[in-house]
Amino acid sequence: MKIVIAEYRGFCFGVERAIKKIEKLLHGNEQINYSIGPPIHNPQTIEKLRNEGLRIVNRLEDIEKGRLIVRAHGLSPELINQARARNIEIVDTTCPFVKKVQERACLLNKDGYTIIVVGEKAHPEVQSIIGVTSGNCYVVEKPADLDRLNLTNNKKIGVLAQTTQSNRNFQLITDRLISKNPSKDIEIFNTICQATATRQEEARAIAGRVDLVIVLGGRISANTKRLAKICRDIGTDVHHIETAGEIEPSWFERKNSVGLVTGTSTPEWIIKETINRLEKY
């Protein structure tokens, strides 16, 4: 069986940067290190960080004393300020590309724009963007969501993207927004991370060449789930897994080729284990 492995795989720049900073803090052992929510969306990496001493909590109130590590997806300024007011040390591991989206949102907000974020409202990155605008924004996940917005009195609109969105979805939404609001001042900023866009393009190309695609990464990872959707939309059989142990021999019956693509928070050791397992077939 032919195996096609994506060239762009493993941690992206932002995730690798965050993990290195966190591990350095954990190995220092100066104080207790906390994260509100997992710092990245990969359960196996999170388990490793927990074993090294990271404490993951759901609320700021769960931190009595210690250091708060701002996750790669970012946190709202209000929450960070509340932590500082309690004399909690802050270490920011927000992805620089997410930070740029936050900064752009702040500028648009100050200039009087109504902000539309193309993304998933419950995702922590989008929540951090909502936070920097003090809630002055709409979140749109699909083109039809625009129909529920009342933009009659909004003369200036600024559009941003969650960094892990697909270019196709972003284009569909912005095209519909423009067609529905031809008289408005609409500023569009495609803030999709280049690493995300590159992996999506490669996943689409691989899915068109193979009989089966294995998408490797956290099940709650937005960028990994999007890779799986892109491959399914091509019409190729897809299995989204987190570890090599989930692979079933029956998947390869009457299959001559398999592709392997990974999310931006999938660690190299899991990728190697998966490749080794595939090579046994």
Q: What is the number of beta strands?
A: 12
Give the helix proportion (percent range): 25-40%
Briefly note the structural class of the backbone: alpha/beta
Radius of gyration: 20 Å
Q: Provide the low-confidence segments as ranges.
A: none
CATH architecture of the largest domain: 3-Layer(aba) Sandwich
Summarize the biggest pleated sheet: 4 strands, parallel
Mean of pLDDT: 95
CATH class of the largest domain: Alpha Beta
Strand content: 15-25%
* Overall number of structural domains: 3
Number of discrete helical segments? 9
Short note summarizing the structure:
The chain has helices at residues 13-28, 43-51, 77-85, 96-110, 124-132, 167-180, 194-207, 222-234, 268-279; strands spanning 2-5, 33-36, 55-57, 67-70, 89-92, 114-118, 137-140, 156-161, 185-188, 212-216, 237-241, 257-262. It is an alpha/beta fold and 281 residues long. It has 3 domains: 2-10 and 194-279, Cobalt-precorrin-4 Transmethylase, domain 1, CATH 3.40.1010; 13-93, Rossmann fold, CATH 3.40.50; 97-188, 3-Layer(aba) Sandwich (Cobalt-precorrin-4 Transmethylase, domain 1).
